[in-house]
Amino acid sequence: MRFCKSCVTPSTRPDLDFGPDGVCDACKTAEAKHGHGPHAIDWTKRAKDFAELVERSRGASSSGYDCIIPVSGGKDSTWQVHVAKNVYGLRPLCLCFEPTLPTAVGRENLENLNRLGVDLLHVKRNPLVYERMIIEGFKRVGDMEWANHIGIWTLPFRFAVAFDIPLIIWGEGRMEFAGNFWIGEKNQREMDEDFINNFACLNGLRAEDLVGADTGIGLGDISMYTMPTREQLARVSGNKGCTAVFLGFFFNWDARAQVDYIEKNLNWGRRVDRVETTYTDFEKLDCLSMNLHDYVKYCKFGYGRAADDASRDVRHGYIDREEAVRLVERWDGRYPQASVAAFCDKFKMSRQEFDSICDGFTSRAIFETKDGSFVRDIDRSLVMKKQWVEGRRNP
Ligand SMILES: [Zn+2]
After folding, report:
1. Are residues 180 and 295 in the same domain?
2. Dist. CA 26 → ligand 1 center (Å)
3. Measured between alpha carbons, how far is residue 52 from residues 48, 81, 93, 167, 389 in Å?
């Protein structure tokens, strides 16, 4: 494991590459975003491309909606609605896939988003099937948010077909955190079946893999966790087809500036304290289970949400690398007590069982062990080996 010389992301991050200069490709993308380097992005041209896409979809649907916006109570949802409705005058159909462990502030933000003057469908998926999928995802691939991820990615396509809507508008996309520089532009711009299979954190597990007598899940139970056929998608809006795009590809995404805007102008609310796995009060605040997803990510790869946030803040010039290292050492990978307790309560699991599943996915190369078990501080946090702590300080 080595660390980027510019941010604090390690090479263990899936789909992230490092250049010969020791800088990760998310940082190189940030450079291009800020208009520097040989691949500087022409934002005027991209905004024009977006406007053309919008005009192609405006009024095209027999349902009367111009686009679908997948939403939660997070910051991106309100920004997406703002851009689509207030800036481009579109009539969106907002779609919320019920989160695993929703928070009060997330619920308030979702109510508020509704009151921006949009139709909102809140999909209360079958909880019995969903909860079985959550446990299976956790045990099989070490991700309790696997079922949520697959649901939020596939459901908008299902509704695009059902409501005959040719455009789906996503938020941030891959541009901010993951490797982009060496992948095709299409995967930065568009969400499709290939994207879901290759880049959507699904760890090679498909919904179909869960069907069976042992899980009690039938083929009919998982239809909304699978994509419509390519033919169905191609027929949308008089054969216009359905295109799903990331706003972050077309506009110079800056989460902090956008949060300031929606807080000031659109009544969006932060947490009063920080999010459990990081130092910020605005990332992943709508679902406690996302904290667990970030915690297991730390167990597997040695970086969590605080490292993501600090790396993003460095790339946008809000902090320098020294401060990022301090923030990560202070907050990254702390055992998320409250989120674990909420998860164990909901899923009738003991904390010992929860920890033992996590241990099965925790890296022995990254964390200290003693007599075959992982060393934990008294607050239950794992102990990163000194060489990596040192490597992060001096990449
Ligand atoms: Zn970097």
Report:
1. no
2. 6
3. 6, 18, 20, 12, 48
Rounded Cα distance, 309 and 171, in Å: 17
Quick one: 290 and 197 in the same domain? no
CA of residue 144 to ligand 1 center, whole Å: 27
User: Which of 196, 222, 250 lies at the terminal end of a domain, its last residue?
Assistant: 250
Boundary-marking domain end, from 218, 250, 282: 250
Give yes or no for residue 179 having a pLDDT over 70: no
Read off the pLDDT of residues 217-250 as tens digits, 9 standing for 90 and up.
999 999 999 999 999 999 999 999 999 999 999 9
Is the pLDDT assigned to residue 182 strictly greater than 60?
Answer: no
244 plus 167 within the same structural domain: yes
Say how many Å lie between the CA of residue 303 and the centre of ligand 1. 13
Based on the domain organization, do 201 and 339 belong to the same domain? no
- pTM of full prediction above 0.90: yes
Domain total of the chain: 2
Residue 281 lies in a domain: yes
Chain mean pLDDT for the chain: 93
What is the distance in A from the centroid of ligand 1 to the CA of 302? 15
pLDDT in tens, 9-41: 999 998 888 989 999 989 998 999 999 988 899
Give yes or no: residues 200 and 283 share one domain. Answer: no
* Cβ(75)–Cβ(282) below 8 Å: yes
Q: Tokens at residue 23, please?
A: 């800088």
Residue 371 scores a pLDDT above 60: yes
Q: What are phi and psi of 10, to 5 degrees?
A: -85, 165
- pLDDT value of residue 184: 73
Per DSSP, the residues of 214-225 read: TTTB-GGGGGGG
Q: Is residue 29 part of a domain?
A: no
User: Containing domain of residue 332, as a range?
Assistant: 270-393
Whether residue 135 contacts residue 217, with contact meaning beta carbons closer than 8 Å, is answered with: no
Does any domain span residue 329? Answer: yes
**Contact present, 7 and 311 (Cβ < 8 Å):** yes
* 3 CA from centroid of ligand 1 (Å): 8
